[in-house]
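DM from R.C. (forwarded with permission)

"hey, sorry to bug you on a friday — could you get me a structure for this? deadline for the figure draft is monday and I only need the backbone to look sensible"
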Amino acid sequence: MDLRQLRYFVTVAEERSVTRAAARLHLTQPPLSAQIARLEHELGVPLLVRHRRGVDLTEAGRLLVEHARSVLADVDAAVESVRRTGQGRSGRLTLAFVPATAWSVLPGLLRGFRAVRPEVELRFLEGGSDAVAEHVRARRADLGLLHLPPGGAGAGPDLDVAVVRREPLVAVLPRELAARFGDRVDLADLADEPFLAPSRELAGGLAPHLLGACRLSGFEPVPRDVELVATVVALVGAGVGVSVLPASVAAVCGPDAVTRPLARHVPVVETGLLRRRSDAPTPAVQRFLRLALDTPEPDALGPAYARP
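My reply, with the result:
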């Protein structure tokens, strides 16, 4: 007994006629009758009572129809589930990220992915840069999102890094202090101000960017470490100090802190996605990567993920 025979039999049972069932199945009557006869022979019981008006089901035939419909429904559901997973339309994707990306890069990536793959289950792990890399390395996460340190240093030989966003650094100032400057700020003019920097543990590459920007402006800051970028902004707004952060920080500045472009050129901040080099990505991961890398910027994952 095979699935084809079960589908044929259910169709005959529904039509109460081999002739009409053959037309519905786009078959001729003889091969359909032969398949039903083989099924009866294999089971060793008659399934149909044949007469001039068509066929009726025997008691055994009625029982087989119930079981056959259940089996075929399960098979169809399994096929659809496998197909959806294989096409990346379902399944699971776990993403690790540093907190500073939760209000900048991450929301846009998630909105784009949910728009095209709404049935994929998303799971999240939040932590510092080292924790994000370790989550990916240990296969607790499929991908990791974090700010890269100056120079785009890699996360190790076992992880690939793909740049998904580049943005300039800006000065973050209390509103009253910002009023003393024009449209742009020379960091050298802030050399005597206390600098606040997000912790290296949680923000990863952001603190080295602040130090590098100040050094290029001719002075060595002594930054005070603060746990989160949002806390840095809140303290700047309270007049505690100033900072240098990616331009997207403007989204969380509120009324008391403002951003200003820098007068001198400094390296941009890169946000990257990490993935395990040795693992073939699942269809859901492939789709997320394609969306994330839909950018004119180069990537490190090769042409398989490049924009068409």
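R.C.: lifesaver. The longest helix spans residues 59-86.
me: no worries. Residues 10 and 148 are 60 Å apart (CA to CA).
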